[in-house]
Specification:
Protein name: Acyl-CoA:6-aminopenicillanic acid acyl transferase
Low-confidence stretches: 1-6
Organism: Halopiger aswanensis
CATH architecture: 4-Layer Sandwich
GO molecular function: transferase activity
CATH class: Alpha Beta
Number of helices: 11
Shape: globular
Strand content: 15-25%
Number of strands: 13
Number of domains: 1
Keywords: Transferase
Pfam families: AAT
Length: 391
């Protein structure tokens, strides 16, 4: 990356619209996204990938977005000086692109039921005198192609009547797969291979859209559940959804194939990438990671924030595809296009608008903690810190 990057403000200014917020974020993350898109363009050309089917899926998926997110995407696209079709696929069809770019006989991607490990600890199971007072949630974010998916600390200020959001997520995108809002509501998910066969992409709410919407529009777990249940379940995507506020916590299995949302109210719950209450595909990695997480949660109860970091760093069955802290296997290639590996870790406390994160694998990355309004180092907002850690 160019070392002459513009140094962004340490704190995030107020904005009047989602488009303005998107433009400011794009200006901050311009270098990281430009580098990633240029590298992707080189790989696509070298392997002769036909983008048209991916672009068709991406364009149909855009139709499912709320207007404010569509405007945000368009505002970001206007800022980035990159190949427009590759950027569109990067935002809306990255996992499908990874399948096309993956090497080896058995590539995997975010679309397969093999990525992410999450846990939820209700207030009653948090240790007395611990470093937390409310419910706890942790998420290891496992993705395919992490080497071309730079991460940054993202703070979205309140806009009109929408809540502000604090998270760590992919530079240059509009989806959010975990975060906390300025009211202390926490939301995070794991992907599950379940969808309704008769729902088109235009009518299907993507998981990253659902989580961002809940954080922007809801202040409590009850409000988030009501908002989620206001949508026809068959129009959602399969996921386990972890919600926590100052006092309440719940894990929801969202099963669009069965048109059902089932609740696991804990007090301790963990999920990887298969349903436990409902039925779904269950991959070996998902089974091993969940069993190991259950062992650790049982051994460590009552739990602290530090205990969740211990679980996030665990290398049993690895380090590799079957461990909670997932590292690239030797055959994964330079950017791990064909394997899901841990790109970031986040630990949240319900009711507390603060995020604890590690970039890359939590066993290696520095543990960082920020709240709304804190001065965040520029290299964390731009994505540079993440890219340097991956190099």
């Amino acid at each position: 990356m160019d070392d002459t990057a513009t140094n962004p403000a340490a704190t995030v200014p107020e904005v009047d619209s989602f488009a303005e917020q998107a433009r400011r974020r794009a200006e901050t993350e311009r270098e990281a996204v430009g580098w990633a898109i240029d590298e992707l363009e080189t790989l696509i050309d070298a392997r002769g990938v036909d983008l048209e089917p991916l672009l068709e899926y991406a364009r149909r998926s855009r139709e499912s977005l709320p207007d404010r997110y569509r405007r945000a995407y368009e505002a970001m696209a206007d800022v980035f000086d990159v190949d427009a079709p590759v950027y569109e696929v990067y935002v809306f069809a990255y996992s499908e692109l990874c399948e096309e770019l993956a090497e080896g006989p058995e590539p995997c991607s975010e679309k397969n039921p093999k990525g992410c490990t999450n846990a939820l600890v209700a207030e009653s199971s948090v240790a007395d005198g611990a470093d937390a007072a409310g419910p706890l949630v942790f998420k290891n974010r496992d993705i395919a192609g992490r080497g071309l998916r730079p991460k940054s600390i993202v703070e979205q200020p309140p806009i009109d009547d929408y809540h502000g959001i604090l998270t760590i997520d992919t530079c240059g995108t509009i989806s959010m797969f975990k975060g906390v809002n300025d009211q202390g509501l926490v939301a995070a998910n794991t992907y599950i291979d379940s969808e309704s066969a008769d729902v088109d992409p235009e009518d299907q709410l993507r998981n990253g859209t659902v989580i961002r919407t809940l954080l922007e529009e809801c202040a409590t777990v009850d409000a988030a559940r009501a908002k989620l249940e206001s949508h026809p379940t068959k129009h959602l995507m399969g996921q386990t959804l972890f919600l926590a506020d100052e006092t309440d916590a719940v894990l929801l299995e969202v099963d669009p194939a069965a048109e059902r949302i089932a609740a696991d109210e804990g007090p301790i719950a963990t999920r990887t990438n298969h349903f436990v209450i409902a039925e779904s595909t269950e991959a070996r990695s998902s089974t091993k990671r969940r069993r190991r997480a259950l062992e650790l949660l049982d051994d460590l109860e009552p739990l602290t924030r530090e205990d969740l970091w211990t679980i996030a760093r665990d290398h049993e069955h690895g380090p590799g595809d079957n461990s909670i802290c997932r590292h690239p296997e030797p055959e994964a290639g330079e950017y791990a296009m064909g394997q899901l590996t841990t790109a970031s870790t986040a630990v949240f406390e319900g009711g507390t608008p603060t995020i604890e994160v590690a970039m890359g694998n939590p066993c290696e990355g520095e543990r960082l903690r920020y709240s709304f309004g804190d001065a965040v180092p520029a290299d964390l907002r731009t994505g540079r810190r993440w890219l340097e850690g991956m190099s």
